[in-house]
UniProtKB/TrEMBL annotation:
Residues 123-186 form the P-type ATPase A domain. Its cofactor is Mg(2+). It comes from Bos indicus x Bos taurus (Hybrid cattle). This is Phospholipid-transporting ATPase. The keyword Disulfide bond does not apply. CDD domains: P-type_ATPase_APLT_Dnf-like. It comes from the Eukaryota. ATP binds at D407, K408, T409, E531, F572, K595, R626, T706, G707, D708, R794, K800, N824, D825. The active site is at D407 (4-aspartylphosphate intermediate). It is found in: Early endosome; Endoplasmic reticulum; Golgi apparatus, trans-Golgi network; Membrane. Its EC number is 7.6.2.1. It holds the Pfam family PhoLip_ATPase_N. Residues 35-90 form the P-type ATPase N-terminal domain. The lineage of its organism: Eukaryota, Metazoa, Chordata, Craniata, Vertebrata.
Length: 1157
């Protein structure tokens, strides 16, 4: 039991050895004394709390806050010693704060538990006791044989045993893990591949030995020992044998695999970063301000204690006749007495620390988070998804973002490739309505108008399309033109690693080509989305790849089936940047088809329209299309024999295999004939380019972190506007050693200094990044800081988190935001200050583990520029205001911050719109005005603090001088006593701080009016009620009839009005001066017309033409203060708004009458 407890707390891991031994189907040896290793279950846990640890863990986190811990100490002091105020004054607010916060955090964690239970309770099929049984995912044990069907997600990390294919292979997609949508092929060892039924698997006796769990998705080492007929057969296991949790089975009916890693030990879970409590910059500022006020409080208590003993130095004041000491007091220790007096003063003055600030902040965050979900502009109709808030503690952090780290696949793109254009033999074509349209004259057309290549069906009787025709010709007439197209699309249909689903294909390609041709009936699975789009395009144009059986690739050309023997595949690698296939045509010719980047194909070409194609490729790239060049070469029998021999020697070499293969590939892929180029569009999500540009205008740096290939990622970066064509692109790729990486970084740093280019972009891959972060972190960061855009490719999930961590701890300490849609993005989402999940096609892992979830990347602009801006301004004002307004009867002390003055600031913090949402979104540069936590800078804090002290000075000494100690101001001739004096000060304070809040409010609704003026009214009603009755349950009632007497004095009313006006007049003068001589960009935007056709202010104050002189003066004051009334607001906006043409947000709580403008 104790071991289990230690394991749950993380102090005692279940296993300690470097390897784990797994008996398949948990058939442990029967001989000898064997103790099986203990492994964790298959539960996935993303929540923070359990039923058992919620109370202690939550209390620990809450008392880490300085204010909470301070008020706990004060409460305990009040319980232990005789203090001027009741313990209730500290204990009740503290209890309320702790309870509200616990409920909010408990509710949010409960939602995470629900998500975890959905995953852990999913049904799975497991082989047990010779049969297939259904159980829940959480019940899978290491060693269980699990059955997974087509399109299902693997519930644990499995070693593949068998599939429905005879060779034991299967295809999976790992898009939710590494962002790649390509199909990956996995294979089982031959001895288990033949065991395709439950009955056969029940006879399997085998042991898997493998390494302990690690986070690297691409690394796995192990071996399987199979016992057959009393003989042990050992087979190596590598990454190709491991099926990762979170990946999805594709193009395979079913597989059986043995669980080797389960639960939080799966590679997917190990790439999750542990859930930690995120704290916003505003909360950190609050703690700093709190410490300053604590220092002030302690100083006040020390000075007061010293002054008390100085006062009591004279005997007549030490023990006056009306306050005689007891014998115990006379004999008590002076040190203890000093400490007791110090603590008493500490309790007396502790109300300058506003505990209700935390209550109000928690309420503001919790209630304010609903506005995001209610905003219809963040609702996606197609997927029926609205924005979600998983953590409301970070609302204001949305207004402080300086770096955005985004995934590519599924976040910036729709993950859908579409064939757009191509260049064939120097002629450029565009696909329009299923037809290829040429943009220039063809050899058989002297005119420059568009000509159509509708299909190849009209040349179906041409002899040169027969299987036995020769490929090496040059076009001289119309039939030769058709042949060039035929050869080009045959290269597209054969040079790939596309897989095809087992569906009805008999009717494919028969008869003339139609627009609803093959793609609707064939389901292709490609190694990359580009390949799939190209093969589907070739099918639309009459050359259909219909599958392969063994080494035979079958293609239908206009309904006629042709079989090509696949001789060799020269795999793609980032150094060559191309792939090739060697096939044998039906006529017996040996052909090489090559596909790759233009930089790797064109230099190897000796024939074809090279210059024209190069121009076309540049034109395609300028449009943001992904380009590939196609070429071919025909081998003689002697040439092929030499190539076959070299390939065999290189592939069987035990030493320097990679280098030898690279040399052979270079020998093969030369003397090419260029066929043309393709242009494919990776469809971007709607308004991605505009959103990225807006982020850049707002001063936010955008980094793209993706697991995709370098070429793919750069192409998308160019198309989405992350990289510009005019930008100087720097590359840090394929670095092999620390010294090489350091040298390259130094070169890049020198280029940045020497190149007179305004903007630089950096491309770095995962391997080079690991080297850069290991020894050259400072130099790498220096290069990155001078780049306006950075793109990291081939990134493992934990590498993404490390990059963000590196930026977070840099000297500038910037606020970071990460956004992604897959499980591979969870680590960076949890590492960043703000994590946003896209509710996309790759599951809900990112959305579950994020702080906020949205349906599309474009919604990020409104989330930051509008909601983030508003939340930050609101809470910054709230915090400063609370320290400013922060005596008296314990009831008043308790109610002052909780009731009398809290509602106006709470409503302000929920509804305030100091500038219209459209202005904020259409002018991203306004976002810069609130960056770096400027509204809570020390300068601003000192201003509010000084303002608070100056107002307090006016309250006290104004009352003291206006109502002197010898002045009789009451109607019955009584003098003003201490309680009456204190009530006067308190009344002026309540009215002034509430009126101050009214001055800060720009956007007035009926709710603002109700709580602002209602709070003052409530104070008067409560004071009359509280002081007008003798309450039997109160031990003393010093306030009886005091407030009524105060209000009966005309002098008191004069003093109240005079002091309130004096305090606020200073504020008004400062606002006038600042707005006239030092206006901020936001204040300028408030005073600028948003539309020349509508005479309105950005502050949303509109006035009719026939205004009176008083109205003119009123308008001037409105412009100075920046305030407006919603009854004179126009929400009429032009249809050219780049983001949202109409504001359907719940933020607008009042009706708007456009006719007033």
């Amino acid at each position: 039991m104790w071991r289990w407890v230690r394991q749950q707390l993380g102090f005692d891991p279940p296993h300690q050895s470097d390897t784990r031994t797994i008996y398949i189907a948990n058939r442990f040896p029967q001989y000898g004394h064997y103790t099986p290793q203990k492994f964790i279950d298959n539960r996935i846990i993303s929540s923070k709390y359990t039923v058992w640890n919620f109370v202690p863990k939550n209390l620990f986190e809450q008392f880490r806050r300085v204010a909470n811990f301070y008020f706990l100490i004060i409460f305990l002091v009040q319980l232990m010693i005789d203090t001027p105020t009741s313990p209730v004054t500290s204990g009740l607010p503290l209890f309320f704060v702790i309870t509200v916060t616990a409920i909010k955090q408990g509710y949010e964690d409960w939602l995470r538990h629900i998500s975890d239970n959905e995953v852990n309770g999913a049904p799975v099929y497991v082989v047990r006791s010779g049969g297939l049984v259904t159980t829940r995912s959480k019940n899978i044990r290491v060693g269980d044989i699990v059955r997974v069907a087509k399109n299902e997600i693997f519930p644990a990390d499995l070693v593949l045993l068998s599939s429905d294919r005879l060779d034991g292979s299967c295809h999976v997609t790992t898009a939710s893990l590494d962002g790649e949508t390509n199909l990956k092929t996995h294979v089982a060892v031959p001895e288990t591949a033949v065991l395709q039924t439950v009955a056969n698997l029940d006879t399997l006796i085998a042991v898997v030995e493998c390494q302990q769990p690690e986070a690297d998705l691409y690394r796995f080492m192990g071996r399987m020992t199979i016992t057959q007929q009393m003989e042990e057969i050992v087979r190596p296991l590598g990454p190709e044998s491991l099926l990762l949790r979170g990946a999805r089975l594709k193009n395979t009916k079913e597989i059986f695999g043995v669980a080797v890693y389960t639960g939080m030990e799966t590679k997917m879970a190990l790439n999750y970063k542990s859930k930690s409590q995120k704290r916003s910059a505003v909360e950190k500022s609050m703690n700093t301000f709190l410490i300053i006020y604590l220092i002030i409080l302690i100083s006040e208590a020390i000075i007061s204690t010293i002054l008390k003993y100085t006062w009591q130095a004279e005997e007549k004041w030490d023990e006056p006749w009306y306050n005689q000491k007891t014998e115990h007091q006379r004999n008590s220790s002076k040190i203890l007495k000093f400490i007791s007096d110090f603590l008493a003063f500490l309790v007396l003055y502790n109300f300058i620390i506003p505990i209700s600030l935390y209550v109000t902040v928690e309420l503001q965050k919790f209630l304010g988070s609903f506005f995001i979900g209610w905003d219809l502009d963040l609702y996606h109709e197609e997927s029926d998804e609205k924005a979600q808030v998983n953590t409301s503690d970070l609302n204001e952090e949305l207004g402080q973002v300086e770096y955005v780290f985004t995934d590519k696949t599924g976040t910036l793109t729709e993950n859908e490739m579409q064939f757009r254009e191509c260049s064939i033999n120097g002629t450029k074509y565009q696909e329009i309505n299923g037809r290829l349209v040429s943009e220039g004259p063809t050899p058989d057309s002297s005119e420059g108008n568009l000509s159509y290549l509708t299909s190849l069906s009209h040349v179906n009787n041409l002899s040169h399309l027969a299987a036995g025709s020769s490929f090496r010709t040059s076009p001289e007439n119309g039939t030769e033109l058709i042949k060039e197209h035929d050869l080009f699309f045959k290269a597209v249909s054969l040079c790939h690693t596309v897989q095809i689903s087992s569906v009805q294909t008999d009717s494919i390609g028969d008869g003339p080509w139609q627009s609803s041709f093959a793609p609707a009936q064939l389901e292709y699975y490609a190694s990359s989305p580009d390949e799939k789009a190209l093969v589907e395009a070739a099918a639309r144009f009459g050359i259909v790849f219909v599958g392969n059986s063994g080494e035979i690739m079958e293609v239908k050309t206009l309904g006629k089936l042709e079989r090509y023997k696949l001789l060799h595949i020269l795999e793609f690698d980032p150094d060559r940047r191309r792939m090739s296939v060697i096939v044998q045509a039906p006529s017996g010719e040996k052909l090489l088809f090559v596909k790759g980047a233009e930089s790797s194909i064109l230099p190897e070409c000796i024939g074809g329209e090279i210059e024209k194609t190069k121009i076309h490729v540049d034109e395609f790239a300028l449009k943001g299309l992904r380009t590939l060049c196609m070429a071919y070469r025909q081998f003689t029998s002697k040439e092929y024999e030499e190539i076959n021999r070299r390939l065999f020697e290189a592939r069987t070499a035990l030493q320097q295999r990679e280098e030898k293969l690279a040399g052979v590939f270079q020998f093969i892929e030369k003397d090419l004939i260029l066929l043309g180029a393709t242009a494919v569009e990776d469809k971007l999500q709607d308004k991605v380019r505009e959103t990225i540009e807006a982020l850049r205008m707002a001063g936010i740096k955008v980094w793209v972190l993706t697991g995709d290939k370098h070429e793919t990622a750069v192409s998308v970066s160019l198309s989405c506007g992350h990289f510009h064509r005019t930008m100087n692109i720097l590359e840090l790729l394929n670095q092999k050693s620390d010294s090489e990486c350091a040298e390259k970084l130094g070169q890049l740093a020198r280029r940045i200094r020497e190149d007179h280019v305004i903007q630089h972009g950096l491309v770095v891959d995962g391997t080079s990044l690991s080297l850069a972060l290991r020894e050259h972190e400072k130099l790498f960061m220096d290069v990155c800081r001078h780049c306006s855009a950075v793109m990291c490719c081939r990134m493992a999930p934990l590498q993404k988190a490390k990059v963000i961590r590196l930026i977070k701890i840099s000297p500038e300490k910037p606020i970071t935001l990460a956004i992604g849609d897959g499980a591979n993005d969870v680590s960076m989402i949890q590492e960043a200050h703000v994590g946003i999940g896209i509710m996309g096609k790759e599951g809900r892992q990112a959305a579950r583990n994020s702080d906020y979830a949205i349906a599309r990347f474009k919604f990020l602009s409104k989330l930051l520029f509008v909601h983030g801006h508003f939340y930050y301004i609101r809470i910054a004002t709230l915090v400063q205001y609370f320290f400013y307004k922060t005596l008296y009867d314990s009831v008043y002390l308790t109610l002052y911050n909780i009731c009398f003055t809290s509602l106006p600031i709470l409503i302000y913090s929920l509804l305030e719109q100091h500038i219209d949402p459209h202005v904020l979104q259409n002018k991203p540069t306004l976002y810069r005005d609130i960056s770096k936590n400027r509204q809570l800078s020390m300068k601003t804090f000192l201003y509010w603090t000084t303002l608070g002290f100056s107002h307090a000075f006016i309250f006290f000494f104004g009352s003291y001088f206006l109502i002197g100690k010898d002045t009789s101001l009451l109607g019955n001739g009584q003098m003003f006593g201490n309680w009456t004096f204190g009530t006067l000060v308190f009344t002026v304070m309540v009215i002034t701080v509430t009126a101050k809040m009214a001055l800060e409010t720009h956007f007035w609704t009926w709710i603002n009016h109700l709580v602002t003026w209602g709070s003052i009214l409530f104070y008067f009603v409560f004071s009359l009620f509280y002081g007008g009755i003798l309450w039997p349950f109160l031990s003393s009632q010093n306030m009886y009839f005091v407030f009524i007497q105060l209000l009966s004095s005309g002098s008191a009313w004069f003093a109240i009005i005079l002091m309130v006006f004096t305090c606020l007049f200073l504020d008004i003068v400062k606002k006038v001066f600042d707005r006239q001589f030092h206006p901020t960009n936001i204040e300028k935007a408030q005073l600028t017309e948003t539309n020349s056709s509508i005479k309105c202010l950005d502050s949303m104050c509109c006035f009719s033409e026939g205004e009176t002189a008083c109205a003119s003066v009123g308008r001037m004051l409105e412009r100075v203060i920046g305030r407006c009334s919603p009854s004179h607001v126009s929400r009429s906006w032009s249809a050219s708004d780049p983001f949202y043409t109409n504001d359907r947000s719940i933020l607008t709580l009042s009706t708007m009458d456009s006719s007033t403008c």
